[in-house]
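Please predict the structure of the following assembly.
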Amino acid sequence: MPPARDAVVRRGLRHVGRAIAEQPGMFTLAVLASGLYGAMTVLSAFVIGELTDRVVLPAFDQGDTTAAALTLTVAVVLGVALLKILGILGRRLFAGIMAYRLQADYRRRVTAQYLRLPLSWHQRHPTGQLLSNANSDVEAAWFFVSPLPFACGALIMIAITVGALVATDPVLALVGLVVFPLVFAVNVVYSQVMSPRMRRAQQLRAEVSEIAHESFDAGLVVKTLGREDVEGERFSERAYELRDGLVAVGRVRGLFDPMMEALPSLGTLAVLLVGAGRVASGGTDAGDLVSVAYLFTLLALPIRAIGWVLADLPRALAGFDRVTPVLDATGETPHGAGTAVRGDGGAGLTLRAVDHAFDGAARPVLSGVTFDVAAGSTVAVVGPTGSGKSTLAGLLVRLVDPASGEVLLDGVDVRSLREGEVSAQAAFVPQGTFLFDDTVRGNVTLGGPYTDDEVRAALRVAAAEDFVDRLPEGLDTRVGERGATLSGGQRQRIALARAVVRRPRLLVLDDATSAVDPAVEARILDALRSHPANRADRPSTVVVVAYRQATIALADEVVWLEGGRVTARGSHEELLAAVPGYAALVRAYSQAEVAA
Amino acid sequence: MTGRRDGAVATLRRGLRAMPEFRRGLPATFALALVATAGRVVVPIAVQQVVDRGLLAPGGPDLGLVRTLVLVCAAVVLLTGVAVYRMNVRLFRTTETALAGLRTRAFRHVHDLSVLHQQGQRRGSLVSRVTSDVDQLSTFMQWGGVLGVVSLGQLVVATAVMFVYSWQLTLLVLVCFVPLGFAVRWFAKRLAVAYGVVRERVGDVLAAVSESVVGAPTVRAYGIRERTAARLDRSIGRHYRAQVDAQKVTAAVFVSGEFVAAIANAAVVVVGVLLGLAGHISAGTLIAFLFLVTLFVAPVQTASEVLNEAQNALAGFRRVLDVLDTEPDVRDPAATGAARDLPAGPLGVRLEHVGFRYAEGARPALQDVDLTLAPRRSYAVVGETGSGKTTLAKLVTRLMDPTEGRVLLGSDAAGWVPLTDVAFSSLRRRVGMVPQDGFLFDATVADNVRYGRPGLTDAQVTAAFEELGLGDWVRGLADGVATPVGQRGDSMSAGERQLVAIARAHVAAPDLLVLDEATSAVDPATERRLTLALDRLTEGRTTLTIAHRLSTAERADEVLVVDAGRVVQRGAHAELVDAVGPYAGLHASWRRSSAGEPERVA
């Protein structure tokens, strides 16, 4: 929704205000330094004039000069220059720090939102887009800050110059000052024309990044199907659209810059033209006119500096408008203040009338799901594809919240628990394994306080110790982005060790053992039951989404999920006898596994 | 792709070669730049003339002359404006076209690199090379480059005029600026390093963001939000510090120019006065000269600004060029013209003393593998995780080249062709691979299937699913084959993603099919249909399946058992299952997976 056209300039100025409000200290320092620089620039012109009058001309007139006079000259010139240098250093550094702090701040805020917002939000936003928001949009939003203090310092220069102008000849000053409304008018038109183009350019930038991210992600598929050229075309199409967008931006900017440059010159000329008439009619004298004309030339630089800031504002707004929805997005998973019961055995789990539906989907994924999992028991969730098993698994560890109904951990609604409570009690291994670009150790501990012995023990349970030992640097081997250097089975074992090392009271496995040997799978489940932290009579609670008979056989109870509803519960044998669909599914799988 | 630190000139030369579009129309743009430069120099001089000759004319103000001069000046200003505008537009068009070309070529080149290279790079970092690193160039090319040329022009003009006034003072000024030249060279190096670090940090930030976004479920499930946030903050902080460090060098560059200018000014006054006293120059000359010095200093200042932008741009440029300069280690022989097509008819596979190491000195992933796979037969490769199965599949599809020995495709009847001689167009058409995790694009089911063979209609895609026995599954989707699959296929289950990936391979109709069997389970009912469909698909084709399931091994014509990088057993399932060897052990462990359900369908 594009903002009203007349609002662009006002929004731009408010955005400038926002930058100043966020970094008042740095801004003040930078403006002071700019002021110093501006004052010294004017002063150095004045100093040269004074030196000419007091040192140069007398020397030529008298045919002699003194060492003192020359020393004074050097001292004054260098003194002014040093102050000017201080001004430059301060302006550059403080303005830079201000801009970079704003960037870093907003990157932190944006990425904090990425971590805070629920998975449903992530599913609606492509990764490439989010990368672009955190990078180029944030950069665009604060790009204008670097020249901002200079422009503000320039305002001081303008005020001084205008004061001097009015004092010298108010009528001529007025003529020349027509430049200012013109500068303003040009800028208003510029902002309005530029804003939609900038928005489009930033959008295209994000789309280019989106395609690149997706395509690099799909590298293997692209290669094996020989679709490199097609991908190249797809990217190129958008890259050239971005080019068109940027050229459209360039046309406007290309016109704006020379106009901002020409206006002060034209102002000076107007002053000269009118002034010549006034000199002729005796309204002013030639000397004053020369002074006024000179003062006018001084205005060119500050006006340009202000032009730089104004020219960048539409881009800044386009970037900021893309960042704001991320910062303002709600749907953050609210946490309560409660703590979970910290038993030494498995956690009890209760689902009461749980409904869940994805945004925009007509059919609910889960409806009226109600069942208990006794502490220390193992429950297998079985059901056909699309019956809602993964969603159910996610609900148990609060990756998603139910639309209605409740999930209770040891009788406490998980939504009332403090952040981190659920993950302290429960471990979840999803279908798709995700490894971080970290060492094997780092991927198992995830920063938790586990000793190497514990890590090794966990890897042993997950049947990963042997291959980890064979890696070049053992536990210290970096696994590459998303574990790229490991095979699918190896990744899955590390993900399992990650869960095991936590000795969770509740372990949720979403088809997470498909790549490991059933014997290994049984060992993992056994290990959890007989974990030193658990008394033998109080094992961990395990919920496992499974197909394998071997896995199902380990379960005390099977929950049969069909079309988002629990339609049967019981032991494997009971369900085999009572539920034809279950029998068909399990047998079909068994046949697929064994069939010859 | 570890950055070569070339000098600025070498980088620019490489860069210009990588951007042929940029050179097109450049002379006209430079002509306009010269007009713009002339305008910028003429305007202050013209104003000076109006004042000197018109207003301060000896006989009082000459109003007629003032009017004429003002009008001429206005015309010059407008003309300059038009020239700048035209130049800007041209420059924007050529640079953006050149950059779009550069982006596209870099992107395309990433896909030319082997899977090994691609895996070695983080996605976020690769993305930054075709996005923000390229963006970094545009500012410089549209603004810095021209400004640099203009400043140089101004510098030359100012120097020439200064010489006319006083050669002694001109030499003095030049001498003052010589040390600046050395300083600038030194700064340029430091800037190059500083900005190189900044660009690298940008890549790090993007990689960290990418990880936290793609790994969102894991971050939440393990309650490691704070840790992930701390990692992100760290990379953002490091980027920030790199920016500030670069800014410090930048500030130093400006300051040194300012400092030298001040010294030159002071020297000119002192020496000028002394020269004047010696009768070499007049007071007027000295005053005029002091004005000229400011004309000389301004472009020097601008030039240092340009130098700064240039180093910033070069840092991004190097990263983009590093991608382009990375030689693909698996090359399409068609590029060198010596390519052959695969022989018509069914394809067999032959490996001759094949060995593979992922890195120099690393443990071999495969060693001394010698085998021939006959056309139109199905083979199952089995083995422990990490035994080399996947490596074998990657070598047969030429995703990588063996470090020892060679791989050939063909048949005894039609002849054998070394894979390295086969044109990619022929290879990818005839040899198909279904990776373990069949990546889906954020598009519809039909679009994803069409990826295997462009141009198929939705009806043909639907028909392909029917052929695979998946007609009812497709009909069950909200919009049939027009159903969107979500990012990376996220709105489908792992099983459903496999169905689409298999249909994609089906329409590609390869003669040799390499399947890396997915480990996650498909709905058993679908799994069974799929097994039947795969039967139909593999019929008449050579199939190499990396098997994780007993059923797959049992159904294959032959089983290859891989252990620690060697093929240790080979033969039909029935023969191997009773033989002494690793296969019997694997089989026993598989059998346990169906414990409790001893029935076996023959």
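Chain A has two domains: 11-328, 349-594. Chain A touches chain B through 177 residues (CB under 8 Å).
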